[in-house]
Design brief:
25% helix, 8 helices, 2 domains, Rossmann fold, five-stranded mixed β-sheet, globular
Length: 291
């Protein structure tokens, strides 16, 4: 991945140097060891040269061929998502967010930056917290965590391994990354007094493209599936047929997504980018659409 992105700087810490030299023997870029930085460096804030269209990060996802593909996300895309999350969650200085997601997954981006840009508290747990569900449940309660995100399978296992008492301190519970079992959704909603969200979106649209909030008055057990909801801010979602035309309500089609969150494309994969990121056929929304 370092070779693919052409990384010129690797930021690490001294305890990992031996591991890095073993894993990356051919890396020739500059290595900055954070805990060895000279203390007499300038304390002035550096001048930012980034623009909205500059790359913010590259997230690698597995491809159908087994070759990971790097998805390029620009600053304007993550800014749009962060502002949507901030308006949805309305975090305060007293709120704590559990940074449970590994930084190799894009959900970690909102856990970190929405929290910090809201002036809230980011709690970074031990790296093995997801392997011990009792410890995870106890951490949520003991640390008074207010917001957390799970894939549905982990939420299901957490409920099965303990009880729903871990829900009590939470104000916001986000599920995403998998289809949600109707019984789990209904059970969580019945025992949770905060805001329960189902979010949907591939990496190529900057974390999420749609969001749906649980409604107490609805009976979800009679639905075919849990809704993915409406597009988030500055996002367009279309259900189109093979001729790229909108299908009637109730007719099966393919999801196309456009808007501010759309990635620049795949790093060093122009053919795949041209295949997946197609021109938007609707002139009133001038952006590419992701197939």
């Amino acid at each position: 991945m370092l070779n693919d992105i052409g990384a010129k700087i690797l930021i690490t810490q001294s305890s990992l140097l031996n591991t890095i030299s073993e894993l990356l023997p051919s890396y020739t870029g500059k290595t900055i060891v954070l805990d060895q930085i000279e203390p007499n460096l300038s304390i002035s804030n550096p001048v930012s040269i980034s623009t909205p269209s500059h790359l913010a990060y590259v997230i690698y996802t597995s491809g159908s061929t087994g070759l990971p593909k790097g998805t390029m996300i620009e600053h304007q895309s993550i800014k749009n998502y962060i502002f949507w999350r901030k308006s949805t969650y309305n975090f305060s200085a007293e709120d704590k967010v559990l940074q449970r997601t590994a930084i190799s997954f894009d959900a970690s981006v909102w856990e970190i930056f929405v929290t910090l840009l809201s002036g809230s508290q980011l709690y970074i747990p031990p790296s093995d917290i997801n392997k011990n569900l009792i410890f995870l449940s106890e951490t949520i309660t003991r640390k008074s965590i207010r917001s957390i995100q799970f894939v549905p399978s982990l939420a299901r296992a957490l409920v099965a391994s303990s009880d729903t008492s871990f829900l009590h301190p939470l104000k916001y519970l986000t599920l995403g990354g998998e289809a949600i079992d109707k019984a789990l959704w209904q059970s969580l909603g019945d025992h949770f007094s905060g805001k329960l969200l189902n979010t949907y979106g591939p990496t190529e649209v900057t974390i999420d493209a749609a969001s749906y909030q649980y409604k107490k008055e609805d009976d979800y057990l009679h639905l075919n599936s849990i809704p993915i909801g409406a597009p988030i801010a500055n996002t367009q979602i279309y259900i189109l047929d093979e001729q790229m035309q909108p299908v009637p309500i109730g007719v099966r089609g393919e999801i196309y997504i456009g808007g501010e969150g759309l990635a620049r494309g795949y790093l060093n994969r122009p053919d795949l980018t041209a295949e997946r990121f197609v021109p938007n056929p609707f002139p009133h929304t001038p952006s590419s659409s992701l197939r």
